[in-house]
Amino acid sequence: MSTQLKDAIIETFKLDPETVDRTIARIEALVQEGNAHRVTVKDAAGATVIEAPLIVGVVGVALAPVWAAIAAIAAVAKEFSVNVERRS
Prior knowledge:
The structure is a single chain. The protein is an alpha+beta fold. It has one domain. Helix content is 55%, strand content 24%. It is built from three helices and three strands. It has helices spanning 3-13, 17-33, 58-77; strands at residues 36-43, 48-53, 80-86. The chain has a three-stranded antiparallel beta sheet, with helices on one face. The longest helix has 20 residues, at 58-77. The radius of gyration is 12 Å and the shape is globular.
């Protein structure tokens, strides 16, 4: 995700950049460890807002930062939860 786009989203939603960066870093670390299978963002009522499968391999690694950023921003913007489903 481009830094300019991320900064624009942080500014638009008045998010704490450090919180967003920490959340993104944690999800990216799980993906790089190879044990993350899916990222799901749910609202306070438990309804799924974003569900992103993380593909194994080069494509998954390339898309992981984008999905992580979307999930982190959604989670911080309102009362959302980010769930990272791990491989068994």
